[in-house]
């Protein structure tokens, strides 16, 4: 692949703004498992090998089982996920594929399971990982 732009070098202020959002996410009450499931699933949908690689490694460190990682792209047909995890995964998919919009059913299911603060943190993390996926894919970051 031909060399591509290095955003942190060319637009450091903008990159820092994204980093600040990531720093905020690290201070939230989201569990490490919830964080990594969101990051892995959004990255799978977006086809970001760099982020899939990073977050499956991180997920294992935070106790996500191999089985949950392997079944993640077919989570609806797997009984290894909690009700909360399923709600998070459904919301992650619909926010990531936003052109189809977020259904009232998926949103309300998550809203029924989580308080407003936690739900806001989930949504902000989904938005953040989608930004990172787009940055990594566009600039040609590769999984190693």
From TrEMBL:
Where does this protein have coiled-coil stretches?
none
Family annotation (InterPro entries): AhpD-like, AhpD_core, CMD-like
GO molecular function per UniProt: peroxiredoxin activity
The UniProt record lists the Carboxymuconolactone decarboxylase-like domain at: 12-93
Q: Write down a Pfam family by its short name.
A: CMD
Gene3D superfamilies, per the entry: AhpD-like
Descriptive protein name: Carboxymuconolactone decarboxylase family protein
